[in-house]
Amino acid sequence: MSIETVHPKVPPVGTIVLLVLACGLYFAMLASISFSAGGGDAAFGDAVASFFAVVALWAVLAALLIAGAVVGHMPRWSAVLAFILVPFSGVAAFVAIDMCSRHIKPAVIVPIVLPLLIVAYAMWARWPKLRASFPAPAVSGVIWGLVFFVSLVTDLAAL
């Protein structure tokens, strides 16, 4: 008979802290969306607040993806796509927030959806049970395909 030592599972504290921080920044970003252009200093102040909210949120989203890749597992090709698409989607989110201030109300969907897609992928990469339930090629292809499509359409619509 062998004696096994039972190690209690350590909760993923770092990932949970990043997730809570991302939630706070997500709601701050959504609160910075204005559907009126205002004028002068007010419009500039709204744009600066939105910019900093988007940059901070996307930095935390990148950290979540890095945690998912380092502690969990992420296909190499997917990590390359993430390296390209995360900044691209951040620009698209900021462009969409600007579109909202110009009374293009459907653009609000972009800053709502893009962070959720990125967080979903980071959580899939981080937790083994999710990776076991959904195959890597399908999850990676669908998530990054949607991020690319939504970002591209948003950026092209703003031209």
- The best one-word shape is globular
State the end-to-end distance. Answer: 71 Å
Number of helices: 6
> Using DSSP, what is the number of strands?
0
**What is the residue-averaged pLDDT?**
90
Outline the biggest β-sheet: none
Order of SSEs, N→C? HHHHHH
Helical proportion, percent range: over 70%
Q: What structural category do the secondary elements indicate?
A: mainly alpha
Which percent range describes the beta-strand content? under 5%
Oligomer: single chain
Q: What count of domains describes the coordinates?
A: 1
Low-confidence stretches: 1-7
* Spatial extent as radius of gyration: 18 Å
Provide a compact summary of the structure.
The protein has 159 residues and is an all-alpha fold. The protein is built from six helices and no strands. The N terminus is likely disordered.
